[in-house]
Structures are given as structure tokens and as C-alpha cells.
Amino acid sequence: MTTKTILRALAGETLPTPPIWMMRQAGRYLPEYRATRAQAGDFLSLCYNSDLAAEVTLQPIRRFGFDAAILFADILLLPQALGADLWFETGEGPRLSTITTMEGVRALKPKDAIHDKLAPIYETVRILSRELPAQTTLIGFAGAPWTVATYMIAGRGTKDQGPAHALKSTDRATFSTLIDVITEATIDYLSMQVQAGAEVVKLFDSWAGSLKGQDFTDFAVKPTARIISALKAKHPGLPVIAFPREAGDGYIGFAAATGADCVAIDNSVTPEWAAEHVQVSGCVQGNLAPHHMVTGGDDLVRETLRVVKAFRKGPHIFNLGHGITPDANPDNVALMIETVRGA
Ligand code: 1CP
């Protein structure tokens, strides 16, 4: 029987104090992260430098004592390993070469060829599984196929995922083939993270909320279900967290439809709603609004307690509803943790 609190919550146990970690816990709001990133040179060099990537993963564990560490990497490293060009424009974000034709999809590398490029990521996982404190769970991750496809098709982050929706309606065959290629590569990528020591994996479907109706079923639920069943066949008992961000009613039944052990909830829904409609079928993670890490004060304490209370009757991992932002104050993170653990 494991004593790691994250694994206990993922196994369905209701704990007196929810375990806690935070999306983007290694990031620009921490001065020690900014220093290590400067040492690496740039963001991608940091991702591919196993020692420094492990270092920034460990920084928030040392500073705050979170119950889980998440591998420091990015969801866009997989498209890069598949052959897309990837770079980051300072102050703007990621840029990729675009894929909008069947020839473009067919020109991607076969999934067996991704591991050379991704080898440093697996090495980061191996370092972390040696160096993390005994009570800290190591989470590996990948983007869910729809979200990764939105970046590969548009070549950048988009507000409404317009280019991906356009390809989906004008050239369904190319779009579906791309989703399948990403799905199969993601299984192998996550499986290698697990072999290297990741104890849990999380699928980030940051743009799931823009898929409606049958599209949500076909491109959020089905690829996630395929990845989870393949991973669990290879790694029996592996816990999986799914994050279909802004899915709204799509959160209801998502765990059962995909085989996920935990559904991460964003802060567009209330914790009371999520407790009633989602936590009834298993573990949930979430869902404090990230802006409290900027604004702090009484609001932070009150809303933190509200999330803890709403989810108290079932398995819960405390987290934000999305990633912490660069303008956040680390003191507010400490106050959130103190509030959760003292509640
Ligand atoms: O230092 C910097 O300038 C880079 C900022 C940054 C960081 C810290 C990026 C660029 N990625 C990351 C790390 C990262 N990304 C992690 C590491 C672990 C942690 O949480 O601490 C994870 C899990 C991700 C996942 C990720 N990358 C997602 C899914 C989650 C989410 O935030 O919705 C997405 C959509 C990305 C793409 C990406 N990478 C970076 C940026 C700024 C973006 C978003 C781009 C956009 O849509 O415009």
C-alpha cells in the first residue's frame, strides 16, 4: 500500500487533507526558475537539458513542498520530434511550421523515430525519480491530440482554434489522420516516460472546450480513451489524469468514457457544481482560479477554503484551474498551501 498521498487520491481514497500541486509550478513567477532558464539560454534549451530541467522541476518542491512534481517539458516537443519546426518568439509564444495537407501529415516521422529527439526528456524523468523526496509523486505528461493538432495546424496558439476547426470541416481525412498520428505517438512517448519513472501521467487538452457535440466525442473523448487503454494495457494500474479544459457539461461522464482515474477541472465551473456532477464518479483535481496567486489576501483564503470544502466528501487533488501566471507572487502560493493544509 502506497503512502504517497497523490496516488492514494488517484486510487479513490478520500483524504482528510487533499494533496496539492500546481499547474506550471515550475515557471517564470519563481526567481530561481528565471535564473536557471537564463543559464540554459532559452526555453527549449532548458527543456532539452536534463540536469537543468530536473533542477527547475525540483525548485517548487524545495520551496513549497508540493505533493507532486510535474516533469519540466512542453506539449510541443512531441510535434517537434515528429518533424515539425518549433521555436519560441520572445514575448509572444510558440511558433511551428504548419501542417494542412495529407502530404504534410505523411511527411511526419514514423513514431519509432521520435525517441532520439526525446531522449533528454526521458533522462530528466530518470534523474527526478532518483532525486525527488520519497513522498513526492512524479507526474509525466503530454498534450491531448486535439490540442497538439491545433498548434500543428495553425503554427501557433490561437484564441478560437479557427485553423484546426477549418481543416476539420474542409478536409476531414487529413485532420483525422493527423489526430491518429499524434494519438499513436503520444502512447509511445508517455509509455517511455513511465518506463523512465513517471508514476502518473496527465493529458492536457487545453482547447477541448472549443469542441462541441459529436466533435467533442470524436476528437476529445475518443483519442483520450485510446491513449489511456493502450497505456494501461502496457502499464497495468498506471493512474491517468485527464484535463479537458473548459469542457463544461463534457466533464460529466468524462472519466467513465475515457478510463481516466481523475478529471482535472478548470475554474470556469464552480467547485460545488463539479463535486455534484463530476466527483460523484471519481477523483477530481482543481480548481482555484489562478488570478488568486496574483491578488492574494482574504479572497485567496476564502476561495481556497471553498474549494477544499466543496470537494471534502470525495477523492480530491487540490490544484489551480489552469497554470499559474508569470506575474504571480510566490508568497500567495505559500499562503494557498498553508490554507489547504490547515483547513
Ligand atoms: O519560460 C518560458 O518563457 C516558457 C513558459 C513555458 C513553460 C514554463 C512554456 C511555453 N511551457 C512551459 C512548461 C510547461 N508547459 C509545462 C511544465 C510543467 C509545469 O506545469 O510546471 C507543462 C505541463 C506545459 C504544458 C503546455 N504547454 C500546455 C498545456 C497546459 C496549458 O497551459 O494549457 C500548452 C497549451 C503548452 C504550449 C505552450 N508552451 C509555452 C506556452 C507559453 C504555451 C501556450 C502557448 C499559446 O497557446 O499561446
What does this structure look like?
With 343 residues, the protein is α/β, with parallel strands linked by helices. The chain has a single domain, classed as TIM Barrel (Alpha-Beta Barrel), CATH 3.20.20.210. It has 16 helices and nine strands. The longest helix is centred in the middle third of the chain and has 25 residues. It is globular and about 55 Å long. The two termini are 26 Å apart.
Which key terms come to mind for this protein?
343 residues, alpha/beta, TIM Barrel, two-stranded antiparallel ribbon, 9 strands, binds coproporphyrinogen I
Strands in their spatial order, largest beta sheet: 1-4-5-6-7-8-9
Strand percentage lies at 5-15%
CATH topology: TIM Barrel
The CATH architecture is Alpha-Beta Barrel
| The CATH C-level class name | Alpha Beta
Average pLDDT taken over every residue: 97
Distance between the termini: 26 Å
* Percent range of helical residues: 40-55%
Rg = 19 Å
Name the shape in a single word. Answer: globular
Number of helices: 16
Could you tell me which ligands this complex binds, including any ions or cofactors? coproporphyrinogen I
Count of DSSP E strands? Answer: 9
Q: Give the topology string: H per helix, E per strand.
A: HHHHEHEEHHEHHHEHEHEHEHHEH
